[in-house]
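Appendix B.2, paired examples.
Example (i):
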Amino acid sequence: MNRRTGLVWLAKIFTLIILCCCGVSRSSAQSNRRISGKVTDTAKVSIPDAKVMIITGKDTLTISPDEYGDFSYSKLNADHFSIKVVATGYDDFKLDYSFADKEKHKKLDAIRLKLSGRTLQEVVVRAKPNPIRVMQDTVEYNAAAYRVEEGDNVADLLKQFPGMEVDGDYNVKVGEKTMTKLRVNGKDFFTNNVKDFIAKLPAGIVSKIQVIDDFGDEANFTGIKTGEPQKMLNIVTKPGMNKGAFGNAAANGGTNDMIGGMAQFNLWNDNKQSSANVNANTSNNGAGHSQQMSIGLNHSDKFGKNSNGGFGYNFNDNSAAFNREQVSEILNPEGNLTNHNQNVGDNKGSTHSLHWNMNFNNKKTLMMTGFNGSYGSSSNLSTSMLQQSGLLRQDLANSSSSNSKSPSANGNINISHKLKKNIISINASFSANGNSNAQHISTNTLYYDQVTGALRKDSLLKRDVDSKTNSRHLNIGFNYSFGLKRPKDTLARRSININYSGSAGSSANDVDTYVFDNRSNKVSRVDSLSNSFNSVTYTQSIGINYNYGAAKWRYNIGLNANAALLSNHDLRLGQTFTNNTINYAPSLNYGRTLALGKTLSLNYSGNTQSPNINQLQPIRNAQSLQNILVGNPDLKTSFSHSLSGNFNYVQKSGRSLMVGMNAATTQNEIVTDVTLLPDTLGSLKQVTRYENINGNYQVNGNYSINIPIKQNKFSVSYSGRMGFSNRAILFNHQKTSGKGANFSQQVSGRMSFKKLMVNAQLSYNVTNNNNTGSRYGSFNYATLGIGQIAAPTFFKTTVMGASLQGNLNLTKLRLNGNVSYSTSHNSGATDQVIPRNSDISLNLGGNFTIHKTWFTDFSSSKRINYGYAFPTPSPLLLNMGVGKTFLKNRSLSMSFRATDLLAQGNTISRSVSGNTVTDSRNLQPTRVFSLNLNYSLSQFGGRNFRVDPD
């Protein structure tokens, strides 16, 4: 081999080495490619038990997401690949992907699985279900871990969840917050109102219940979560149960002149939802006749690929006579008052309402529009007799009649669009409202000598008051978010958000007062009690926020400036009053998943509240001659601060700890300044004015511990609330404060077997009733005279209670019973102590199938009560019924019922607010015999579900 030949071979070897290195480099580059993504359901809740399959050619690799739904794989050696995701109860997902040139990390869009539309056979799950799972902004309850019997509704299921409260009217509370918004499978569901449907939907269709901190549809689209979230209930149905028909129709007649009928049906097929209802009935309620009539029609559906919308019309017409009696004990620094009031009359009202909405969402653009219009009319006729004793002795006989009309319309539009890195949002809304009211008032005041008690004067005054109010409001908003560059090797999103909102409102208020002269029989206008007032309000808010979002934590921090301008023009006096205010407040929203089963969230927000036209008018409102109201044109806009936080910890066993706190304070809060003035007859008159005040605050905390035993067959719960508050009050132009601590503890236990459930509960509560909120801020709150005074003396209420409840379900027999005891004690800062009132209640009820389609049911209740201001017999209530079912699924029934066979029922109740304890009772018949025909429809996924009435 010569030298030339050797050089040629060296060149070939060098070239081969270079080619091999390039191949290795290319192979290494391919093998280091990474993909990442997230698997959720349509409600954006993670599905950790899903299986993610990465397909490259003939090779398939299966991985599982973590508990947050996130997945990633970093050794992919192909340019093209497919992703297939499967999960029990959901439709399969499959999509092809490709890497771009020089792309090393492919970040997939969130994969959202839809519930399967196929009806699956029942599967016996032998694995131990996890009762509770906590995620960022979501607490999820697994229905399989709780007792669900045939005939149970969703409310029966919710009552078993720790940290959740459901009352007799189907109001749902989680911690300190009331939950009103409802969705099913992450989608709007008819009216979206929780209490409208948790009693109608069967628990048997539920797979999971999710309690979500909802920041609104715009926040879900943009990912920018600001402000205080509201609690939303999302029902995740079992596979194939996302469609159905439910409702009922009934007709009845009874011995209390009762006759009527109703029908209410809902058709549901995922996005397509239609409902219709009609109701008409009349009865004698003891004070007179009561009539109700209503008609409603609602429909919503998806049209096109990315749009959905709906419309609805509702009409209500009601009239009812009433006969009420109240006895109030009022604490006051000048001396305590006792008011005994009897009130009879009749109320009538009707309302027409129309609504329409349309939404568009193609993942790049979100548009939401809506319109609501309504027209209402009402009339009222009432006569009352108020007897006052204690601090003063006087009687007030009042009669009044009124008629009012109130049209209103409002609309809104919201558009958000995602650019490559930035997001822009624009929103606008308007509202227009009107109210016209004509009122005739006749007041007869009886003055007594405060020493001898002899009648000194009988004063009669007749007045006609005509008032008209018209208001208009316009809001606009702008939001721009620009994304910041992501750090390497992270999925975190960072952005700066700039927002602006402005509003303009105007209102016109005219009041004309005419007085009838008993001596001349002439009617004359009283200028001092009449006015014509125009008000204009402008508010603006600008803010800047920094947003950070990652798989396990997110936060939003910012600063907001709020400006308000109030201008009020008195046409009668030719004077204009103006007021300008500017407030600054930070904003904070923080959420973090600390570890598996541990979440923490914090929220802070501030907002302004302008005084209303009635609080601003510097005129004397003398609808009640003993309680004259005067507005204040110099009122400032109030600004409230709110801070809340939650910590949730759940173990795989289902043991859970839920802790919450909230604090609030208000600057320049609008309160009443009450002054008692002597008159020429030795009596007293009350003058109420409005002022701004500082010093009001409240701090509260709540906690709930739940321990399930033996796969949730037994459970023990311990919960409580503690709080401190201060209520600053103006009385006789002097500022005073009412401080108090609230304390509540509750221990409960539950035993759940296949046919038997037992619940037991002990509770202890101490409440200082100083946090009366806006109870004294209403312009027309008092028409009966002196008494409802925001005095710096408050009642402290101590309540102890115990209850035991059980349910037994056999093939032909169902029994339910409970025993409860409650005692309440109210004491004030003075020597005034209201007698302790106690209630002991024993209840037993059930139903029994006599022979196939024949049934009988009964309920009994013994209530022992004492300590009320009224004579309080302890009634024994007996109710019975017998009936027969028809049709194959027994959906049609006819029954004969008797309620309160012994006619011992009464309607006595006690309420405590601030410095007032009130005992009330209404006159109404309780013994009624009735014949009832009922048809019930409850079909989901092709199956019939029975829903028993509570």
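Example (ii):
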Amino acid sequence: MDASLHELRSVVHRCPVIDNHAHNLLLPDKLQAYEFAAITTEAQGAALKDTYTSLSHIRGANQLKELYGCSKDADWNSVLASRAQVLTDDPWGLVRKCLEGTHTILMDDGLDADTVHPYTFHDQFTIGKTRRIVRIEAEAQDAMRMLMENPDRKFSTDSVGKDSLWVEFAREFEQRIKNLILDPEVVGFKSVVCYRTGLDVEPEHLSESALGAAIDDFHLYVDSAAQGQYRIEHKGVNDFLVGGTLQLLSSSRIETGMSKPIQFHTGLGDSDINLLRSNPAYLQPVIEKYSHVPFVILHSSYPYTREAGYLATVFKNAYLDIGEIFPMLSKDGQLSMLRQALELTPTSKLLWSTDGHWFPETYWLANRQFRRALEQVLTVYITDGDISLAQAIDAAKAIMYRNSNHLYNLKLPDDPIEGSGPKLLTEKAMYPAQTRHSVPIPVSINRPTAFPDAQALEDFQAKHGQLEYVFVSWLDYTATTRTRIFPIGEFQRLTQTGTRFAISNGTIGILANDALTPACDTTGVIHIEPDLSTLSSNHLTPPSSATVLASWRDASGNPHPACPRSTCQTLLDHLHSTHHLTLTLGFEIEVLFLHRTAHPSSPPATSSSPSFPTPLDPTHAWSSLSPHSLALSLPLLHAIASALSTAGISLTQFHAESNPGQFEFVLPPRPALAAIDTLLHARRIIASVAEAHGLRATLHPRPVPGGAGTGAHVHASLVGDDERRSEGEVREGAVGKEGVEEKEMRFWTRGVLGHLRSICAFALPIEESYSRVADDSWSGGRWVAWGTQNREVPLRRIPGEKGDWKGGRWEVRCVDGLANMYFTVAAIVAAGMLGLEEKGEEKVRAKDCLPNPSRLTADQRAEYGIYFAMPAELESALSLLEEDSELASLLGDKLVSDYVTLKRAEAVMLGAMSGEERRRWLMERY
């Protein structure tokens, strides 16, 4: 075999699969409930007797001989006997072998719930954990059963009673779907309307005629349910369930920026299906109407594969699953179907599934036959010169793994195999060789799927009005917000075509005044990719505009190893995937409002008079509000709160701080990356409103010499996955209540505290930052320590309302507003994971310090495990970061090196200014 084809074969047969549609395995005592011969056919009953002469059965039986160790000439009865012996000797070994190579199963667990294992059972045999696909008809049946069999709620069977029951039924079904949309275990939904009344679903399910038909059919359904027949086979009701689910999914897309997909059984089925009405072409009106919702057309839609491929090609929100025909068709049929799917459909719109069910062998046969078919088809395309080796390898990974990872938002590593074909992201460049305590970081999954970004812009304009401009912004290494402004027409073109724009790689190494530093390498480019889930209105006078935050990508569209935002997301993803922990953040925005007395366009570093000599209110004090202060401040504060609210940003409170003209705005907790994005939007809006009032809003850490400092305290909590088996024990790898507490202590008091001095290089990024952090000033103090409700330590633990762990959080106090918060949080997460991965116990651990460390003697501090002072200057923090090889290995050695180089160059530039010049220069920019 040609070496390049051998490489393709290696990838196709080694790549773990995300099985995007399958079913539960049977319980051991239910193995006889179904005919084993049905594993290669949809035939049932009398029709099943002829399956033994089908090519699919003969081929499957021959392959099973290999699985069970039978002789090649064994007949079917001998195969069954060998299987029975395997099930007696090592049943779980058989399951493990059959699911080998499966990374994650997305399981429709609405089939025969009484005879199968719960979905979590399958986790022990796969690389990743099983996730749920919810069958909407099963939910509707359960809802009806609950209402009908509720002894406390009786419904009459007359027309009025049935109408009343309809209202209850519709409400209960809607609430169930809403709850399931929010359930992180549920990654998608499924409808079997194809089996019930056909795919010609009424797209306008709330129209007068459709509702009338639904209610009339519901009356008939009530009669069936009263006889214990809860299966829904009444077209008006079935269409209502599908339409209602699609409406809720569409609404969630508008509200949250994403929609969970919905799968539809199409094509191949047993005699219970109407073959004509199983054609996916019937779905075109609803696919078109609900353009926010991803549709997955299941089971290769055989024999309507071409029709399904057409829909997946022309509709952005349609995808084709190429499952079930393995092992249901002959080899030639499988190859033909696979070629039909590839005739028109982009490989980015194809998904793999086994439709494995009941017996583990269904998984084994499907995966085995599919891998061979995919290899054969791609090999021909390469040999004929239709595609390159790299394109074939990428297509295989996309179909088998990546497309499902993106579509279902699984947040798994993008590339499941190392060393297979051209790397889209060089992991070694981003994460060098591990040190003793370093943890292996996967490639970031922070590459948004192409769907549904273009739609997100339309949704935003529908809600906020037509835009004229979009500001694309990103945060550089100096925490300067860099922005490109696009007319709306050009921005729409970018989003619709999935085009990124490029900037020079050298921008990594420039200062806020565009001065070059040794970190500047002008070769190569960075591709800027807006994340449309971050769209936020600008508080500006006309023209109408919005700001969207962006990440950096490489030429292949993968996260750039130098990107602050992507680095942060990568580490957050790893924290969750490895330790089952999610970080939630809430930020305090401390800001000082100053009057301008010199025109803002005059060069602040050379102006002979100070630009900002007077604060907004020279008389106020912490949390005070005199009538004079009220008159001066409230109009501004109200305008800020209103502008934030208009942008969808809520405040929990705001109040006066200690410096005259200084205020604090408190943001509610959110998932970490979203919280940082919101922080940047909020700061932008606050500064914009202040400017409209003739004021400058500054985050300068020491804006008034001798006055109180301005910080940016970070409130954080770790949330563990609450995943339990049906028997009640904690799932392996999941985090129970006690596990969260133990992990929190290791994360914060071992990891973060142990690397806190290095983290200061990011969190306290200029020399003025260190003059803010002092003893006896409520700024976190000078000692590396932690304490419960102690504001004189840099790491404060805040218990919950009842004083216990539940609902508690941690506050990182050694942070100010000039920090690049993506880098700061990334460093915190990296340090925390080092604490989680640390093995054994050190002799001394920092203890909960309740007193002020600065008022303790050295011996007393030692009793609390307090030995180190915080860095007193920026250079000390940068040196500590350079020496912290463990932290640098997780953040990326090149990233850390460039950051340190740039900050030293920045310090030289600022050091050349006089004190007042420097103060004004920083205030104008931050």
